[in-house]
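Summary for the steering committee. The consortium agreed at its last meeting that each partner would contribute one worked example illustrating the joint modelling workflow. Our contribution is presented below. We chose a case with several input lines so that the handling of multiple components could be demonstrated. No manual editing was applied between input and output; the record is shown as generated.
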Amino acid sequence: MWSKLVVNMDNLSISRVALEEEFQDLGGRSLIAQYLIKNVPPTCDPLGEENVLLFATGIFAGTRFATANRLSVGGKSPLTGGIKESNVGGYAATLLAEHGIKLITISGLPKDDNLRILYIDKNGNANLLDANEYKGINNYEFVEKIHERFGKDLATISIGSAGERLYKCSSIQVSEYNSGHPSRAAGRGGLGAVMGSKGIKGIVIEKPEEKYEIPYKDKEKFEEICLKLNRMIAESAKKDPFHNIGTISTIEVTAPNGILPVANFSGKLFKDYKKVGANKFMENLKTRGGRNKIPCQPGCIVQCSNCYNDENGNYLTSGFEYETIAMFGPNCLISDLDAIAKMDRICDDIGVDTIETANAIAMCMEAGKINWSDADAVLNLLNEMAEGTEFGRLLGQGCEAVGKSLGVERIPVVKHQAMAAYDPRNTKGTGITYATSPMGADHTAGLTMGRAFDDSGRTAQAYASNKLQVAIAFADSMMCIMTFANMVPGVPLLAEMMAALYGGSSDFSRVASIGVKTLLTEREFNRRAGMTDADDRLPDFFYKERSFATGSKFDIHDMELRTIFDF
Amino acid sequence: MVRVNEREIEYKKGMTVADAIREAGQSIDKMTIVIVDGIVLSLDEIKSVIVEDGAFIKLLPLISGG
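What follows is the complete predicted structure of the assembly.
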């Protein structure tokens, strides 16, 4: 049976128990939703003792299914005030699954100011170790010191100084497979602050001496379906731009179509987008010894990650993605890819969400605190966040807090969370997802770009958003969504795979209902936390200001937003 | 000879990337990333960029967001 590691910071106790029967065949986002609604009061203080920080592996964790070992991090978000599941690649979930751990729960608050590491050794024993020597250091240095102390045959989950300072935009960083770089981020929603509030600097997981044996109902059947799906994914991935180039290729589609945010979602086009586009990225990789096609976790076939070196050929950052490039780049009118890579590195290091942080920086530009295009000024502000100056701490509270403090009217947030790199006027289904997702403005919750009849029209946008939000809710429980995109024709096989693993029905309704139930549970958590229909709306300026590229406004009626989850 | 994904077509002097794609019977839309000999071209550029003999044109549909 899968187990649960229960960590109580009130009395610093740890116990390992069997995961409840009702959760055995859940994983990832679905497990987080069901656990939170039953165990966390929705009105609790996200940084208080009643909140629980969760780490969950996926439904197919430990199997050979491609990207089965995704890690979901959950809790009540200090940024949105609602439920949060933020999922991340890296090596940690693989090792947790090999230990037979499906869920870690961290509850309570320590009675002292000490920092601790949750250490899971090669025999599966878990202990809280003193981590005061790591106080104030950032993620790259933390991982280096952990490697020096314990060796490299392990995975890390950690927070930087931002999480320790309880920044609402703080991330939880997970080490990448092979390189060990802490460059994979559970970025959204400020869960790094929840980890900081519990006094946990990091979780270190040693590779187990003996692997947990997964109790398949029908292993032969499972392997047969799994192989079929993996082959389908591998074949499709050959033509996936994310495999061939990386997620930066998205800019080649968003920029010419007015979907790329420019100058704080001004609706303008960015003529210099190629300076931060795929060709420049690939040229820099080639000439500086960088790499693409890197799997961030074992068994990934899509391999969309990368390693980006500086102009001297030295490692600068990895997992350098479209969202970061678009939001620090065109949305701040910056066209210097190397400067953006430095920003990415700082964000990963101090442990902040690049989307939230870049939007907060755009607020500073909109207010005239710094100039548009001024990459040096941005780097200075990020250093202020690292140093914890007064303004740095304000930036750490996210886009909305900064915008309001500086008197900005055009603040691109939903449920207090900043938008990702898709202008909702020109991918309106994505706008509906931003508005209605229980996660806040989150593109990964249901990006409809290219999937509706006309991205800037109104037809069927709610339909596309609804279907995708359901699909992503179950995909987030099982795999990486980049993999999911490559196996859509094989989706019915997921139910057969669940049946071969856990027993029970092999009907696709089993999988679909995981998606629906997850969404409805998340929305119920938010309702109990005090959210209303008014929280399912985009900021006014998207309804009033037209996109220069298409002339489109966000003209989706409130009724469509209100009824999107009337299943 | 010009290759468009798995398909090979006859090279014609002066043909544009868009001509070659059409000749190969391939369709593209705004979600398609067009790569010619390793260089990404915009959908505007493919109408004017002339293909060289032996060129390899990759058409990669963007299927998710970054």
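Helices of chain B lie at 17-23. Strands of chain B lie at 2-4, 7-9, 32-36, 39-41, 56-61.
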